[in-house]
Each structure stands twice: as structure tokens, then as C-alpha cells.
């Protein structure tokens, strides 16, 4: 398998790179942006990312005492919301492949007084280190597009879900509202790198993030990928004119 992967390529933004190099390149991006990640999210989306995450949380249907996993959970916004839903008797696991992001998520969560019933695991979404049938709900917010092998990650999340459990994928997608795409492209490729340079002293990482969105599967393609991974009753909700979409699927 290693020999096969060494000969394969994949995209890192608009750049074609060796399959085995992408995870390292992505790690470098998030090592760089971690300290200003939350501030940049607020600036980039004018605070809308918080509304998108609240909508995602409104769709979990979690009950007190249940178990939830937030994959590629970054600084922990979704994980903290999940913890409120499962209550004192429930468990939430915040996982991320990037140690710097995971550390920020842990620190922010402790700072707001959430200590018990939440765990932190540095893990690759493609091969999650959890037993099969472990979680009632799994979320992944703005992380799937950075995964090298997206089908493997979806299969790994499917395996970790309990029968009857739900996966929620919140991710940037393709604008569907008339006239929105050229404005969105202008913002992404002209404004966003400048904002990244001024606020985070890193234009290249934010240029990559804009490019990674364009390379991510569109709404219908991702819907098909969920079905291919075994999920049923799959659907998606467009948010902000399709700039963001929430995909969902169940394990029956």
C-alpha cells in the first residue's frame, strides 16, 4: 500500500502533490493558523460560522447520557455544544489530527468550565482509533476538505457510529444563489489572503484554504460519497446560498 500511495497524487489547494505529502502540508497550515484561528473565523465569515455551527447542533437530536464525537474539531466550538446536549452523564470526544489545534480546543474548553465528560484524542479521520458502534452522533465541521482520503474518513466515521447514529458534515461547498459565485471568488482570492496576512501574518495558508474549498466535492458529489460509505437517508441543507452545506446520513 505504501508503494501505491507513493505513486499517487492529490491536490493541496490548486497544487498537485504526492499523496503521502498532503497530511504533512495540511499540518503545516494549521500549525501556522492555530493561534489566530478563532479570530480569523469571525473576521472571514462576519461571525456567520457561529450560526452555521448552531444550526448543525440543532440537528444532532442528542439526548442526555449519549456519546458524541467531533472529528477534526479544531478549537472545539461544536464539541462544547455537543457536551451541553449530552449533559453530565454523557461523553464527548474532541479529536483532531493537529496537535496545536487540539491543544487550543482543550484550553478553550477548560476555560469555560467544561472538564468532566469530555476527552481529547489526536487522531487521523481516515482511521479513527475507536471501537465500532461507539457514538450516537459524529460531527465534522470544516475539516473534511483537508482530509487526503475522504472516502476512507467517511467509512471510518460510519464504523464508529452506533446503529441508528447520525453523521453531520458541515463544510464549505459550491454557491447556488444566482450571481453569488463571482463575488465569492473575488472575496476568496483577493480579500482573504490579505486578511490572513494582516491578522495572522500568513497569506499563503489562507490562500490554500480558499483553494481547498474549490477542490472539495460539490453538494451532490458529497451526497453520493456518503451513500457509498454506507450511510442511508442522506440529504443536505444549503446555507448562505450554498457557500456552506450541512450533509447528514444515518447508520441503520
Amino acid at each position: 500500500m505504501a508503494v501505491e500511495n507513493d505513486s499517487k497524487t492529490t491536490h493541496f489547494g490548486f497544487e498537485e502533490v504526492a499523496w503521502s505529502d498532503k497530511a504533512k502540508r495540511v499540518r503545516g497550515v494549521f500549525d501556522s493558523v492555530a493561534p489566530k484561528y478563532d479570530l480569523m473565523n469571525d473576521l472571514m465569515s462576519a461571525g456567520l460560522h457561529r450560526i452555521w455551527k448552531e444550526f448543525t447542533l440543532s440537528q444532532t437530536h442528542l439526548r442526555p447520557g449519549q456519546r458524541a464525537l467531533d472529528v477534526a474539531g479544531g478549537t472545539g466550538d461544536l464539541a462544547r455544544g455537543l457536551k451541553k446536549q449530552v449533559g453530565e452523564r454523557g461523553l464527548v470526544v474532541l479529536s483532531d489530527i493537529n496537535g496545536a489545534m487540539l491543544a487550543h480546543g482543550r484550553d478553550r474548553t477548560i476555560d469555560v468550565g467544561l472538564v468532566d465528560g469530555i476527552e481529547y484524542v489526536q487522531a487521523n479521520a481516515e482511521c479513527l482509533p475507536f471501537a465500532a458502534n461507539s457514538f450516537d452522533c459524529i460531527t465534522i465541521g470544516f475539516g473534511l476538505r483537508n482530509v487526503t482520503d475522504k472516502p476512507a474518513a467517511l467509512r471510518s466515521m460510519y464504523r464508529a457510529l452506533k446503529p441508528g447514529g447520525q453523521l453531520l458534515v458541515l463544510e464549505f461547498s459550491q454557491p447556488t444563489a444566482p450571481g453569488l459565485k463571482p463575488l465569492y471568488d473575488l472575496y476568496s482570492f483577493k480579500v482573504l489572503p490579505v486578511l490572513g496576512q494582516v491578522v495572522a501574518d500568513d497569506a499563503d495558508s489562507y490562500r490554500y484554504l480558499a483553494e481547498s474549498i474549490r477542490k472539495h466535492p460539490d453538494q451532490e458529489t458529497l451526497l453520493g460519497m456518503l451513500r457509498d460509505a454506507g450511510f442511508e437517508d442522506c440529504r443536505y441543507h444549503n446555507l448562505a446560498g450554498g457557500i456552506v452545506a450541512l450533509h447528514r446520513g444515518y447508520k441503520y
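Residues 42 and 50 are 8 Å apart (CA to CA). The beta strands are 9-12, 15-18, 67-71, 91-96, 118-122, 135-141, 161-172, 232-239, 244-250.
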